[in-house]
Amino acid sequence: MRLDRFLAELPGVGSRGAAERLLNAGSVLVDGARCVKSHRLLAGETVAVELPAHDDGPLEHAPMALRIAWEDEHLLVVDKPAGIVVHPAPGHAQGTLVHGLLPFAPAGGEEPDRPGIVHRLDRDTSGLLVVARSSEAHRRLTQLVRRRAVEREYLALVRGRPRSRKGRIEAPIGRDRHEATRHSLDTATPREAVTHFEVEDLLRAHTLLRVRLETGRTHQIRVHLAAIGLPVSGDPVYGIAGDLELGRQFLHATRLAFPHPFTDEPVEAGSSLPADLAAALERAGT
Hints:
Blueprint lengths: L2 H6 L7 H9 L3 E3 L16 E3 L17 E5 L3 E6 L16 H5 L24 E7 L2 H12 L4 E9 L6 E5 L3 E2 L7 E2 L9 E9 L3 E8 L6 H8 L23 E9 L6 E5 L4 H10 L2
Parallel strand pairs: 5-12
Antiparallel strand pairs: 1-2, 3-4, 4-5, 6-11, 6-12, 7-10, 8-9, 10-11, 12-13
């Protein structure tokens, strides 16, 4: 049996998605070693699983100033502020975007503490993401993401200049071999990752890029841009911490577009740069 399928059947795991998150977090060892999700278990192997702490209590609303960029009875597009984790996770049991969205009745998905969540943004990345309001909407939106029918565009300010005005980065990403909290190209668990970029503005020592995701791996934009010598300004992990007086990475999900999962009509939402990133961009141009 495949390792991810075996894990999905364990109490406290319950799905292939949850199994993959445990594997990516390094919480699963087979005979003392990390393995890829496709590893075929053999008789006599010992599987050790460390489950995250989980609160079975109901989610409680956390008042939060949120801008809803688009909504109907099936879904909504929310403009996430920086500094907010998308859903509950170890160390972030309260005050997540999910808690703030409860009055909008998010729904759908296999994880009871992640209702409606189809894709994510890093805590310190601001901007747009789509949220389902029913199980069927979640299923259909997930299919759109898998078919790469959801256009996700970001603005990223990087140090340096690219070699061309447009580019495509195709390099598999996974958890770093040596640092469990980082993702990189140097990994034992590579997953396909494709990023497109285009120059939006050339500045003195920086470049403002418009970036489009073809896949959605953890930290994908930050890892890919750093790999081609264009570290993201303000990024404390892969880029230049404190650059331009930034307290976080200059990365903003500025546009989201997709066919409506029920009507097939085009849905498009936009988000302007928040104040801290707009101020950093002005400093970069002076």
